[in-house]
């Protein structure tokens, strides 16, 4: 006779359900989250379940596979978190200094992979304008999620936020009036057309797509934190293949000795995750 069937523990069942959910999302929609950092991803999945009053991951999977709005909500939950205009003044100060490295390039190209909403790209466009480099610099902002990409293309800022954004801007080293870089449409503000025209938005998946251009600056501060170890190394290889010699890479944390091609880079600042490619 066969022995009694052993019951898996609740955490083991949940882990299996999440693995099946991610496989289903990949097979059904083509988005591959299977190599993302699992603890962080699990927290987002459970958060969505709480919002939808779903008791198990399997119930969520059923909704995701058969209900497009639920699928869209999950893809949004697992995508990079939005960044607001000048919301990290210290990082912006460092970016100001890094932009000086682009001065030697006739037509610099900057890539923002998994751009954390339009406001991240707008912040960079404003910095380039202050350096008088926006006329000859192209910003490529990419996102895997088509819905978030569409939102970025139509983005605007509520006017009531502008006072706080002005304070963030001043803390980051700005000396002008932030509103001068925007046009007002009713109760909302939009970056000036001359600056928006320097930003090219495109759908691009860091997990599956190959290098598509050569850049003098790649800035990826948000997405890498969600990646598991293997996927992170793939992204670092992709960035290396896309970065010009003596170009600058800005990432979420300092490179470790075991990171892909770490020996090809030299720090721009001490104890900060900015690197110049030297080999």
UniProtKB/TrEMBL annotation:
SUPFAM superfamilies: S-adenosyl-L-methionine-dependent methyltransferases (SSF53335)
Organism encoding this protein: Massilia violaceinigra
Domain CheR-type methyltransferase: residue ranges: 6-249
Domain of life where this protein originates: Bacteria
This protein's name: Chemotaxis protein
One Pfam match: CheR_N
Coiled-coil regions listed: none
